[in-house]
Specification:
With 408 residues, the chain is mostly beta strands. Strands 1-28-27-26 form a four-stranded antiparallel beta sheet, with no helix packed on it. It has a four-stranded antiparallel beta sheet with strand order 2-3-4-5, with no helix packed on it. A four-stranded antiparallel beta sheet has the order 6-7-8-9, with no helix packed on it. A hairpin with a 2-residue loop joins β26 and β27. The longest helix has 20 residues. The protein starts with a helix and ends with a strand.
């Protein structure tokens, strides 16, 4: 009898663990950090945050800050790897490490008044994406000597480079003026915008002969090396803001700004929300390491989920919201715009209102009947003075209020 009782408890614990693993699990860090990028090098996972680089070598059970050689509190905007070398980008300079982040060394080249925004290794070359100001347009810079010197290969027109991706022999640059393609190791670039209806291109991913582009208004697919693009957004809410894309075999994952993670198993023909367990829907980075997918978020560190419970899914009903959720606006404090996200477990009449501190209603920013799902609304307070405000969601019998701070 004692043996049976012990066996029952053991089976229960195993079953419970499997249930826990069939959803997103928050890793042990970097807690509270804004994760801007992720990079995988062998069995190591690197997270670039607003407070430097963090490394996990033990399946993300723990994270260690690895910032020796950086200036104080470096904001890491890009990470990439080439063999045993790791490259990290901060505001105006590229750093490299040859010992898994134990030490970092800066290349002598400074990008002056440009802001580094993306990095990629393309063959034997290193490519940097930058942004600038009205007098210093950004663009793409190429290094053929492993980062020692750089030359401009794509710029002008105040080009803001948001993303870089290498897929086979192709390198794609996503900008605020559309997509650019290089097929010669970054030496020359061609604009490839045919079919795009939104030119703010934030992410790329390649799957076989297919290329995917993420924009501020959804995902586009090209089957001819970017010569033409077709919108593939069935299953997304209206105008999804795509922040990152990653491919695992025939599966494409999309991280969104306010809507969490979506999965397509049919080359983008349809998408399914896969947010079970995830509590922060601002997904800024995705990476595949081993048997898991990892998601970097804005303010809630890194999350992981087994690929095995995602890649067999064709329609993940359990990932529909199970509760009413009113998320904290992001950014907060803000100026002048902020994103407010909420989730509905069932169809409801929705009312979202902004109030002053004394309870006076200022703006009704949402007031309609909506289906179950997750929604994000951009609130622009350019006509309001600095101060503390409240926003209230009413949906069915649910009601919740949260505070936000406007600083001008």
């Amino acid at each position: 009898m004692k043996y049976l009782a012990t066996l029952t408890i053991l089976l229960f614990l195993i079953s419970s663990n499997e249930i826990l693993q069939a959803q997103w699990i928050q890793t042990n860090g970097p807690y509270g950090g804004i994760v801007n990028c992720l990079a995988v090098s062998g069995t190591n996972l690197f997270a670039g945050t607003d407070n430097g680089v963090f490394l996990s070598t033990n399946n993300e059970s723990s994270w260690t800050a690895v910032n020796n050689g950086f200036p104080s509190n470096p904001q890491i905007v890009a990470l990439t790897d080439s063999g045993t070398n790791i490259f990290a980008g901060i505001k105006d300079r590229v750093y490299f490490s040859t010992n898994n982040g134990t030490n970092w060394t800066a290349f002598n080249h400074s990008f002056d008044n440009y802001y580094l925004s993306a990095l990629a290794v393309y063959g034997t070359n290193l490519i940097a994406g930058t942004s600038g100001g009205t007098s210093n347009p950004g663009g793409v810079y190429l290094s053929t000597d492993n980062g020692t010197s750089w030359g401009s290969v794509l710029g002008g027109g105040f080009l803001f480079v948001i993303s870089l991706n290498v897929s086979g022999t192709n390198c794609l640059a996503g900008t605020d003026n559309g997509a650019f393609l290089s097929t010669d190791n970054g030496t020359s670039w061609t604009i490839v915008n045919n079919g795009l209806t939104n030119f703010y291109v934030t992410a790329f991913a390649g799957s076989g002969t297919n290329l995917f582009a993420g924009t501020q208004r959804g995902v586009y697919l090209s089957t001819n090396n970017g010569t033409s693009w077709t919108a593939v957004n069935d299953g997304f809410p209206s105008n999804p803001k795509i922040g990152t894309l990653v491919v695992n075999g025939s599966n494409i994952f999309a991280g969104t700004n306010g809507g969490g993670v979506y999965l397509s198993t049919n080359n983008g023909s349809s998408w399914t929300i896969v947010n079970s367990g995830l509590t922060n829907y601002y997904v800024t980075a995705l990476a595949i390491s081993g048997t898991n997918i990892f998601a970097g978020t804005q303010g809630a560190g890194v999350w992981k989920r087994p690929l095995s419970d995602l890649t067999a899914v064709t329609k993940e009903i359990n990932d529909s919201p199970k509760d009413y959720i009113l998320a904290q606006n992001y950014p907060n404090p803000f100026n002048p715009s902020t994103l407010i996200t909420y989730s509905l477990p069932s169809s409801s009449n929705v009312k979202l209102v902004v109030y002053k501190t004394l309870g006076q209603s200022i703006k009704i920013i949402d007031n309609e009947y909506k289906q179950a799902g997750s929604y994000s609304i951009n609130f622009n307070a350019s006509d309001l003075p600095s101060g503390i405000y409240f926003y209230k969601l009413e949906a069915g019998q649910f009601s919740q209020i949260k505070k936000m701070i406007l600083i001008k």
